[in-house]
Amino acid sequence: MDKREYTRCLIVGSGPAGYTAAIYAGRANLSPVLYCGMQTGGQLTQTTEIENFPGYPKGVDGNQMMLEFREQAARFGADIRDGVIVKADFSSKPYVLTTDRGVEIEAETVIISTGASAKYLGLSDEEKYNGQGVSACALVMASFIAKKWWLLWVVATLLAKKLATLPVFVLKST
Ligand SMILES: Cc1cc2nc3c(=O)[nH]c(=O)nc-3n(C[C@H](O)[C@H](O)[C@H](O)COP(=O)(O)OP(=O)(O)OC[C@H]3O[C@@H](n4cnc5c(N)ncnc54)[C@H](O)[C@@H]3O)c2cc1C
Fold it and tell me: Ligand 1: which atom is nearest the Cα of residue 50?
């Protein structure tokens, strides 16, 4: 493998921001090269249902949505690669970034879209209950709690109806 390459546009990260950048750069004929990093598709691949993204009126699975982002970026010529950027030299142009496989990439433009990772509290059962009440996303949590209160209301209503049909015993003192 050639250890030194050149690109007009290098994108670091494959979350929504990285793929969006790749779609725009691809459409601008910049032939972008995108490195996915250790989490291909970004944080949304950790969740099952996304309900707040425009264009998906019925909600969408996070992995499915990120596959569609990737497909759209590839359609406009983005060169999407596995690998992590481990070093960057921005001291002069073209910038030089190095991958974990030792490939040096000279780039006129670098778009850094490395996102974030959730900070958990470190409690013992956090991982066990992740997605079942423990969440790193405020939007997901709000919706989860709203759904649970609704569920509680249904259970309480059903119980109340059941109780109303039970025979009533009247205790008499002799
Ligand atoms: C469990 C969970 C559920 C969520 N649910 C929702 C939701 O329902 N709705 C919503 O709007 N938001 C949700 N979010 C938030 C949403 O995931 C983030 O806001 C969004 O993913 C941020 O996108 P991003 O592209 O900026 O970065 P990220 O998705 O964080 O992607 C970062 C990318 O950078 C890459 N990267 C990092 N370092 C390097 C490197 N050195 N070299 C190469 N690549 C690198 C990673 O591999 C990754 O691909 C949720 C988050 C979590 C954790």
Answer: 8
On whether the pTM is more than 0.85, the answer is no
Residue nearest to atom 33 of ligand 1 (CA): 13
- Say if residue 94 is preceded by a cis peptide, omega within 30 of 0: yes
- CATH architecture designation of domain 4-112: 3-Layer(bba) Sandwich (3.50)
Q: Given the CA of residue 86, which atom of ligand 1 is nearest to it?
A: 41
For the chain, what are the domain ranges? 4-112, 130-165
pLDDT tens profile 108-154? 999 999 998 888 888 888 888 887 778 777 777 677 667 667 677 76
Please, where are the H alpha helices in the chain? 16-27, 62-75, 138-165
